[in-house]
Every structure is written in structure tokens, then in C-alpha cells.
């Protein structure tokens, strides 16, 4: 049987030109079960077209869709001690970090980038859930602080996309120390008079929700995002009561005043640009309108109400 499987079948497949189909060619919607071609899903910013379900999206893909023409400049993260506690559970912490870096192509869970949306230069900070659940450790904390400091130095508004399971347990108290440190960075940005908009994505939980993720001037949530400190199951077991339908989801939190608006990923760029124009007091007059207005009134035209004196 092994001879048939290992030799005969591959030989026949190569003769017939048969190719193995990639497993991720079609993606199943977690809500409706509908199958979506992965290229269509990618072009739609990883939002299921039929149901509107928001899949998780990589940090670099989010920035590509968010910035004008997909152009941006990334900031290099500050180097920190990789394994300060020499932590090991089932695996070494250093091994987990190595695998996460290889999987995502990132140094850690935070990616800072500077680019333009509708012509306005901004700094965007993206938390990638694929990197160890977007957990907040020393490297991520340093990256967030560096992002805020750069924004203050260059007088840029900050848009932060939060996605996290909370503090990174492998770094213990050193991870928890990042919560007050990032809060101080937020305060400095606000003292500088610069806008800070937070986009809460699925999921945003734990210490991240208890710190910089809920300190924005405006809080926007993606549809269906899970947002909270402790998870629903932990809360139910603690209070021994059944939670309301949709508890801790974006729509529920908007109804109860925890977030300002729920916006589809497809409309985020336009919504954030409009908010920043208001907060930064950018005039809404488009350059085309200004040019048309200047053409209607030539510079050589005489002011109204002034006429040449009549000839005698």
C-alpha cells in the first residue's frame, strides 16, 4: 500500500498534470457558513461580502488599505530584553517569540507607520492579534510609547487599532508596568493638543482595554468586535447569572455608551478622515473648488464699487 501511495499515485498525478489545490483557496464565513474565494475576500479588506462579518486582518494589510495609495513609512521598534524572566511553560518563551516573528513578519505585536489619509499626514499604530494574541509586553509597550513620542515631535494625530487578549503572561509584572507607561504617553499627546482616535477591533480585552484603548478622544468599534476586560464566560461564572444577548459586542457597547460609533472596515478611512478634519480644523474646501473659484474672479479684476471718473 505504501508503494502505491508513495510512488504510483504521485507518478500518475505528474503524468496527468494534476496539481494539489491549496487548502485556503476558499474561506468559510464563521457566521453563515458561506464560502468566499480568498482573493475576493482580500480585495474586500477581509470583510465577508454577503454577511458583513469582519475577519481578522494582518497589520500590514490594514495599513495598506488604510493609507492613501497603500504608501506608508514604518517606524523601527525600540530594542528590549527578549526574555527578562527566562520564562518557560510547555515551551520556551524565546521559541514562541521566534515562531510569532516568522508567522507575522513583525518584531512584536505593535507596528507604527506614518502616512496620509485623504492628504492628511497621520501616525497609525496597529496591534496585530496574530502575534501572540496581540499581548502587551515590554517590546509592545515601548513601541506604543515611541509612536506617541514621534507623533508629538512631528505634530501628527494618532489613530490606534487595538486588538489584544491582554498583558503578556510570560513577562509577568514587567508586562503590567506597560499599562501606566502607555497611559502617560496618551496624556502627553493630549497635552500637546493632538487628536487621538481609537479603533476597537475583535477582540480588544484585558489590560489593553483597561488602559490606552479606552482613552481616545473618539472610540470607534468594528462590527461584532468583542470588547471588555474579562471574558463573558469568566463574568458569568463570577456573578452566576446569564448575560444579555450580544453582551460585550460592539453594538451592545454603543447602545450603552461605551463606544461612540460602530463603523464597517470598508468605511473606516473616510470616517476617520472626516473626524480628523474636524478635530484638526482642516477646511473642507477641496483644491478643485478653490481653483474654480479663482478662475471665476481673475486677479486683475477691479474691486466692486470703484469706477473710473467720468470724462468731462
What is the architecture of the largest domain at the second tier of CATH?
Alpha-Beta Complex
Q: In the CATH hierarchy, what is the class of the largest domain? A: Alpha Beta
In spatial order, strands of the major sheet run: 3-4-5-6-7-8-9
- Please count the helical segments: 11
Distance N to C terminus: 119 Å
CATH superfamily of the largest domain: 2-enoyl-CoA Hydratase, Chain A, domain 1
Structural class comes to alpha/beta
Q: Indicate the percent of residues in helices.
A: 25-40%
Mean pLDDT: 88
Radius of gyration: 26 Å
CATH topology of the largest domain, by name, is 2-enoyl-CoA Hydratase, Chain A, domain 1
Low-confidence stretches: 292-312
- Biggest sheet descriptor: 7 strands, mixed
Please describe what this structure looks like.
The longest helix has 17 residues, at 138-154. The protein contains 11 helices and 9 strands. The strands form 2 sheets. A 7-stranded mixed β-sheet has the order 3-4-5-6-7-8-9, sandwiched between helices. It has a two-stranded antiparallel ribbon with strand order 1-2. The radius of gyration is 26 Å and the shape is globular. The protein has 312 residues and is an alpha/beta fold. Helices cover 36% and strands 15% of the residues. The model is unreliable at 292-312 (pLDDT under 50). The chain folds into 2 domains: 25-55, no CATH class; 57-283, 2-enoyl-CoA Hydratase, Chain A, domain 1.
Amino acid at each position: 500500500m505504501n508503494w502505491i501511495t508513495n510512488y504510483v499515485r504521485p507518478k500518475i498525478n505528474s503524468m496527468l498534470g494534476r496539481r494539489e489545490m491549496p487548502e485556503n483557496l476558499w474561506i468559510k464565513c464563521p457566521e453563515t457558513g458561506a464560502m468566499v474565494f480568498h482573493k475576493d475576500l482580500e480585495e474586500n479588506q477581509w470583510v465577508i461580502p454577503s454577511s458583513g462579518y469582519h475577519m481578522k486582518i494582518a497589520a500590514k494589510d490594514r495599513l495598506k488599505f488604510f493609507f492613501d495609495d497603500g504608501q506608508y513609512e514604518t517606524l523601527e521598534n525600540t530594542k528590549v530584553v527578549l526574555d527578562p524572566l527566562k520564562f518557560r511553560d510547555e515551551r520556551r518563551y524565546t521559541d514562541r517569540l521566534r515562531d510569532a516573528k516568522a508567522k507575522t513578519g513583525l518584531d512584536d505585536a505593535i507596528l507604527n507607520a506614518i502616512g496620509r489619509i485623504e492628504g492628511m499626514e497621520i501616525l497609525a499604530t496597529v496591534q496585530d492579534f496574530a502575534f501572540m494574541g496581540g499581548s502587551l509586553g515590554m517590546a509592545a509597550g515601548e513601541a506604543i510609547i515611541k509612536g506617541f513620542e514621534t507623533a508629538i515631535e512631528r505634530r501628527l494625530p494618532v489613530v490606534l487599532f487595538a486588538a489584544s487578549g491582554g498583558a503578556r503572561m510570560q513577562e509577568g509584572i514587567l508586562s503590567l508596568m506597560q499599562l501606566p507607561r502607555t497611559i502617560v504617553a496618551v496624556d502627553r499627546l493630549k497635552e500637546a493638543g493632538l487628536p487621538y482616535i481609537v479603533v476597537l477591533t475583535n477582540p480588544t480585552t484585558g489590560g489593553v482595554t483597561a488602559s490606552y484603548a479606552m482613552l481616545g478622544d473618539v472610540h470607534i468599534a468594528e462590527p461584532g468586535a468583542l470588547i471588555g476586560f474579562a471574558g463573558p464566560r469568566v463574568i458569568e461564572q463570577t456573578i452566576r447569572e446569564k448575560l444579555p444577548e450580544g453582551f460585550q459586542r460592539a453594538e451592545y457597547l454603543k447602545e450603552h455608551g461605551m463606544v461612540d460609533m460602530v463603523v464597517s472596515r470598508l468605511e473606516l478611512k473616510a470616517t476617520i478622515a472626516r473626524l480628523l478634519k474636524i478635530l484638526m480644523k482642516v477646511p473642507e474646501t477641496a483644491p478643485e473648488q478653490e481653483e474654480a473659484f479663482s478662475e471665476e474672479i481673475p486677479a486683475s479684476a477691479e474691486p466692486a464699487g470703484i469706477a473710473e471718473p467720468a470724462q468731462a
